[in-house]
Design brief:
The complex is a heterodimer of chains A (106) and B (120). Chain A is mostly beta strands and 106 residues long. Chain A is 0% helix and 44% strand. In chain A, 38% of the residues are buried. Chain B has 120 residues and is mainly β. Chain B is globular, with a radius of gyration of 13 Å. The model of chain B has no long low-confidence stretch (mean pLDDT 96). Classes of the chains: A mainly beta (106), B mainly beta (120). Chains A and B meet through strand 3, strand 7 and strand 8 of A and strand 4, strand 5 and strand 10 of B.
Chain lengths: 106, 120
């Protein structure tokens, strides 16, 4: 079955660019979504279908997916971007989430 | 566009709960719906999906047989029946809509969550 692997944590200074990876077997053949999860809030979709942003998501969020790795990139990172980020895919019968990456803006 | 969950609470191990999720602002009857949970200090865990007409359901293997997803399109609601509850089922349970009526595209609308606590 599909497994999605994310780094447990990443950190970035304010204003810089950060990338969060999501690895899985032949991931490039599936659509990947990314969610932001802040404490006490519901998950928020920030990327769907690998690289598409919902209208309410700032342009500094972007995504890519190729080979065995999907990547969420945040450009000009802001303090309010500090949160947990989860990748997700559908493998035909199950929804699979990555373990999540805690983004710290310091 | 909104999803509102209800039905959570404190239950003893072995007990049951029925969670509800009321939808508004979109065409519910054509939407795949999903339940996802987050245990304290843990990540997101998918629980179940249901197709628009309810004709097919999908579950995470570890919960098959204890949890049941269902829907009532006339009431624009999706449900999650939780049986034989265990302490490790303690979590915030979210319902979500699958984007563009497909499970391939992710979940674009989420409820506020309802908390289930299993404890004696």
């Amino acid at each position: 079955s599909l497994e999605l692997t994310q780094p447990p944590s990443v950190s970035v200074p304010p204003g810089q660019t950060v990338s969060i990876t999501c690895s899985g077997n032949q991931l490039g053949e599936k659509y990947i979504s990314w969610y932001q999860l802040r404490p006490g809030q519901s998950p928020l979709m920030v990327i769907h279908q690998d690289d598409k942003r919902p209208s309410e998501i700032p342009a500094r969020f972007s995504g890519s997916n190729s080979g065995n790795t999907a990547t969420l990139t945040i450009s000009g990172t802001q303090a309010l971007d500090e949160a947990d980020y989860f990748c997700q895919a559908w493998d035909g019968t199950t929804v699979v989430f990555g373990g999540g990456t805690k983004l710290t803006v310091l | 566009v909104q999803l509102v969950e209800s039905g959570g609470g404190l239950v003893q191990p072995g007990g049951s709960l029925r969670l509800s999720c009321a939808a508004s602002g979109f065409t519910f009857s054509t939407s795949w719906m999903t339940w996802v949970r987050q245990a304290p200090g843990r990540g997101l865990e998918w629980v179940a999906n249901i197709k628009p007409e309810g004709e097919k359901t999908y579950y995470v293997d570890s919960l098959k047989g204890r949890f049941t997803i269902s829907r009532d399109n006339a009431k624009k609601s999706v449900f999650l029946q939780l049986n034989s509850l265990r302490v490790e089922d303690t979590a915030v349970y979210y319902c979500a809509r699958q984007y563009s009526s497909s499970p391939h595209y992710g979940m674009d609308v989420w409820g506020q969550g309802t908390t289930v606590t299993v404890s004696s």
